[in-house]
Design a protein that fits this description.
Dihydrodipicolinate Reductase, domain 2, single chain, 323 residues, 2 domains
């Protein structure tokens, strides 16, 4: 049996705790052995809570790269670029949480750093690796319902975020576009690729968007109508794909456990998937890439990440937001 992939987590907030739990409980080929923070004190507290082997500062991990096989960067978006480049320069493989960065140019720098160091870097868009997402891609690619004629998607949230949350602050690169709109952009590009035209409208408060309605325009009148928002008290999200001969509905698309297919002439079908934490699939994918010596994921390519970042930056630009 191959040795387990030894992980460190960088950024010790809510998402890192979920990552630790998934690796500990579900990932048979990996283990969390270290936590990394700008604060040694915070790292030590986190280490004690989860029983980890090492509590490190950023520099301590960079100075001791052989302690781990990979690092999961889930610090605030404004810190991603510096964190990622520090670890890549130490030749440590990096899985970087979405949104990958706050603009296109810094994302490009991160990817160039990966190539210069011949060390793998992948955006942690976990939705792309879900079995439900793979199934949707298979159905649309097969054309069994014909060609896609339109996309409609929304991701509305707000629950659990207090007024001082990072999502409402410019200094931490907040806003619905970077935090949840990124899911909609990734999903649309997976299905239709880069649009010919983008239109966006929304509400900006304190230099970050609270909501954004945006449309992607494609040849032959094909359009994706999308919406991200922090105006709601509960999470609401869904994605609908209309095709020539039927419709595909993905409730809770970002963490889908079922896909509904409605043929124009036929019986509705519901495809159900295992109810486990979807983080597992991207973790297993990245672990295998490391074992195979790969430098880029074939599912979450560098080009796809850059295309998404280009669109996110354009959406913010149209709303008058820049980072």
């Amino acid at each position: 049996m191959e040795p387990k992939i030894r992980w460190a987590v960088c950024g010790l907030g809510r998402i890192s705790k979920r990552f630790v739990k998934v690796v500990t409980r579900l990932a048979k080929d990996a283990e969390i052995i270290a936590c990394v923070s700008s604060s040694k004190e915070r790292a030590l507290a986190y280490q004690k809570r989860f029983g980890l082997k090492y509590a490190l500062t950023y520099q301590e991990l960079a100075d001791n790269p052989t302690l781990v096989d990979a690092v999961y960067v889930c610090s605030n978006i404004n810190k991603h670029s510096d964190n990622v480049k520090m670890f890549l320069n130490a030749k440590i493989p990096v899985l970087c949480e979405k949104a990958f960065s706050f603009n296109y140019s810094t994302a490009l720098e991160m990817i160039e750093c990966s190539k210069e160091n011949n060390t793998i870097l992948m955006e942690a868009m976990w939705t792309r690796f879900l079995p439900a997402t793979q199934f949707v891609k298979q159905i649309t690619d097969s054309k069994e319902l014909g060609n896609i004629s339109s996309l409609t998607g929304w991701f509305w949230a707000g629950i659990g975020h207090g007024p001082n949350s990072r999502i409402y602050k410019k200094e931490t690169c907040g806003g619905s576009i970077l935090d949840i709109g990124v899911y909609l952009v990734h999903y649309s590009l997976m299905l239709l690729g880069m649009p010919e035209k983008i239109e966006a409208a929304g509400k900006v408060i304190k230099d970050v968007d609270r909501w954004c309605n945006f449309s992607f325009f494609y040849p032959d009148g094909i359009r994706a109508k999308l919406s991200s928002s922090f105006r709601f008290l509960a999470i609401r999200e869904s994605f609908t794909i209309k095709c020539d001969f039927g419709t595909i509905i993905i409730p809770r698309f970002f963490d889908a456990k079922r896909v509904i297919i409605k043929p124009a002439n036929g019986k509705k079908m519901i495809k159900r998937f295992k109810k486990i934490d979807g983080f597992l699939y991207e973790i297993e994918h990245f672990n295998q890439l490391i074992r195979d010596g790969k430098k880029e994921s074939p599912l979450m390519t560098h080009q796809r990440t850059l295309d998404v970042m280009r669109i996110l930056e354009e959406l913010n630009r149209q709303l008058g937001v820049s980072f």
